[in-house]
Design a protein that fits this description.
Structural class: mainly alpha
Strand content: under 5%
Radius of gyration: 10 Å
Number of helices: 4
Mean pLDDT: 92
Order of helices and strands: HHHH
Low-confidence stretches: none
Number of strands: 0
Distance between the termini: 14 Å
Length: about 60
């Protein structure tokens, strides 16, 4: 579920950063780094549903 959600967030907010998807697959300990990269590089505000996904990721995996 973690990998699926990270892929979704990267695809939606940082479509040019496929390296982050590969990093998530190879090393789930990099979750905090991936979320910070999404936050820094996003071009639009998070949708409410995506905020909920980020909260769940933060609660369960950080």
């Amino acid at each position: 579920m973690l990998i699926q959600n990270l892929k979704y967030l990267v695809g939606k907010y940082l479509d040019e950063r496929n390296d982050l998807v590969e990093l998530a697959i190879q090393d789930t300990d990099s979750t905090k780094y991936i979320l910070s990269e999404i936050s820094k590089g996003k071009k639009k505000d998070y949708d409410k549903e995506d905020v909920d996904i980020i909260k769940d990721i933060s609660f369960f995996y950080l």
